[in-house]
Amino acid sequence: MSRRTERVGDGHAAETQVLRQITARLDPVALGASLAVVCGSVLLLATDVLVLKGGQQVGSHLVLLSQYLPGYRVTPAGSLIGASYAAMGGFAFGWLTAHLRNILLSICLWLVRFWANLSNAYFLDRFD
Prior knowledge:
128 residues; single chain; elongated; mainly alpha
């Protein structure tokens, strides 16, 4: 077998492997959990930094979150409550994003296969 034939065969296998990696489905629970950790940590750290910083008006902008998150205050206990809300929101966003991406990817792949089958079958030649 010549090297050129081996390269063509290897290139096809490599292309197939790349396509499988690109079109891999996202795990909704994994993406949701990772965003839950990130969102919860960010709000926890932001609140705790402002509490440690202190001052006359602690977190005048961050305190506005209490209108959307019941029980949240710019206090050490409020940071835990806010972190749990942010984690729940992050999980919901990640879970939904993964599901929507998987659905849209499935639709796109179906359309590509559909149009490829039409072009390969000489679809328009049937109407002579």
